[in-house]
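Q: How do we represent a protein-ligand complex in a form that can be generated token by token?
A: Start from the inputs.
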Amino acid sequence: MPHRPHLLPAALVAAVLWAAAPPGPAGTALFAVTGLLLAATVVVATAGRATQAARAWYLAAAGLALLVVGHALGLAQRLGPGGPPAGPTTADAFCLATYAAMAAAAAVILRSRRALRDWAGWVDGAVVAVAVGLLSWVVVVEPALDGAAAAVRLLAGAYTAGDAVLLGVLAAFSGSAGPRGAASRWLVSGAGLLLVAHLMETLHRLAPGGPPRWVTALWLLAGLLVAGAATLPSAALLGAPGPGRAPFTGRRALGVAVAVLTVPVVELVRGATPVPAADHRLLQVASVVLVGLALTRMSLAVGDAQASARARTALQDDLAHQASHDHLTGAATRARTLQTVEAALHRARRSGSLVGLLLVDLDHFKAVNDAHGHAVGDLVLAATAERLRAAVRTGDTVGRVGGDVLVVLLEAPGSEAAVLEVAHRVLAAVRTPVAVGGAPLVVSASVGVALSRDGDLDADRLLREADAAAQRAKADGRGRLEVFDDALRATLAERADLEAAIRAGLRRGEFALHYQPVVDLRTGVTVSYEALARWDRPGVGSVPPGVFITAAERGDLVCDLGRWVLRTAARQLAAWRAAGEAPPHGVAVNISARHLMSDTVVADVVGALAAEDVPPALLTLEITETVLLDHPVAHEHLRALRHLGVPVSIDDFGTGYTSIGQLQHLPATTLKIDRSLVAPAAEPAAGALVALVVHAAHAFGLAVVAEGVETPEQLVALREAGCDLAQGFLLARPLPARSLPPVRTPLVPGPLPAARLVEPRTR
Ligand code: C2E
Ligand code: MG
Ligand code: MG
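Then emit the structure tokens for the protein with magnesium ion bound:
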């Protein structure tokens, strides 16, 4: 948990004292103290958390400090024996340096958002800077400088230019793609207020007695907003990269158009008022610059559109190329296979002939890869494809539709019996040993057969039917063939219904999250909850998660479900935080493999956190162990999330093939030992195994949770094994948020032996 700094309240007290104090040295000192406390708030809040944008916050703190010193000096000079200075002073040097620090802070954020090279964003920023700079100079600053000395004019010009630059950078930041949150809103408001304060200051600079106190109060308020932003949880997400580049929306186009109109509008408003020659030139130059920028912006937008059209064409070419070959097996790829099947069905529709599709799914292919290496796996695939080609007629197509899944399309085979004959031949051909480095390797396949008469199906459907038949062949013992029939037809229809019902249920709010407490074995107190999805299907009742999650995982539906879970859990966390009832480690949600591998997962997690302003450390992601080992993309996404401070828990440990040694390489903070290891933990041998796992996990800096604790004996054994946390029906069942026991009530009664709680690792 990032510790909450007490500096912000102290700064507020100092600000109130400043407001109450009469102008004079004491007031100036209080002003300086307030500002420095605000800068310190930013530093302390940033140091207390892992954030990508730490450097930006330190620069912002430096900006605040420079500003305060500059202003305190300015106030002191004004009150000094010489009275208000007319020309530039050291105070001005400090104040101007503020701009550099703040702009650098924004640039650091933009770099970490990967928006630094977003030239279009910069042009938008420049348009805003020139338009607003021009307006404030011509309308506000210049008239107030009437008759002032050249040095004063130059200084006012420098301030106005600084304001404009800062505003431009802010516009680039606001337009960049990336998560929004309260911190980003506060920061932009704070910086915006800084600009207003500057303008007011310039306006009143030449007034007798200098700028009024409310102008100074504006400075403090701006500082307060910036410091407040740093203490908000979403401050940690400010530098998180967004999904791609921010698009050139209608709103942006309108902004550019309005900016270009600034000059004519200023001219129009001034009407007959005589304009000094210098101003006239300024307006002309600004007009040229603005039109130039607008043209640049348009050409960048056109360039973007052209680049994306080119990328699309390249992708199409690429797809067309990939669609025809698979380099490894020489078989048609999935896209080409589907096209060929579609064409065959089309012909069958006209001729009334039969089409047969065999789906050949190699058995235990992963084990071949694991045991003999990928090169041998490739060899087996290539040999299998070759044998399939040998087993069919020349007009028939052999395709590869998945890693270890091949298909054979039989056009006009004559009869169902002829299709089955080929299927048997294929089965036998695959079983013939493959020579690998001299040693024979035997592989089998499960074959699914689907038939279409008169081309009454589409290619996708025929493939799905063959797949369903192959699945049944696998389930019934592998190495055999099955034909798609009415029973499988009913299963497929049921699946489609279920998927449609889940989709509709998500829309209609039929899903809910239940929360199961995770308890600290030292204190018996709840430290977090695991969020578990529940579905009350109208007319059916409660559907077990095993059923609806498995159904959703067959397609991208599980990503929709995952997003809903993330948003709902984050909202509940925010509600608990507001009521002071959040458990110290927040909530854990289960992320399924498919969602973890999808392109949107990082944005989904960051979006849920930012929307509810929840610190990343409070939302743990539970990932099943096997996913992490098999998929490099999953690893990459998890690392990105860990980098943002989101904890990761390895779920169901003990059900897959992860060895204890591999634990140290996983981007995780916590290990959850599966119920199947926990259930027999009270027996000596099983207890020793749990102790071994706990010991290894601790050595790698992982905290350990035991899942599915059902008996007091298991609990005692887990404590003895050194386990840190436990979850299970013995302690509490998963419940709706409103029915949970109070978070601070110990769920384990009686004295607890001391155990070593490992703080989750932070790398
Ligand atoms: P899991 O992540 O391992 O969740 C723990 C499961 O163990 C939950 O089952 C929980 O109710 C059950 N459980 C907890 N304590 C005990 C106990 O003492 N004894 C026994 N027998 N069971 C216990 P549930 O809710 O049925 O969920 C099953 C699985 O479904 C979860 O396993 C998880 O993999 C998946 N799941 C649940 N909700 C979600 C979700 O929102 N998203 C995803 N992707 N998967 C979810
Ligand atoms: Mg889980
Ligand atoms: Mg589990």
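The two ends are 15 Å apart (CA to CA). DSSP finds 26 helices and 16 strands in the chain.
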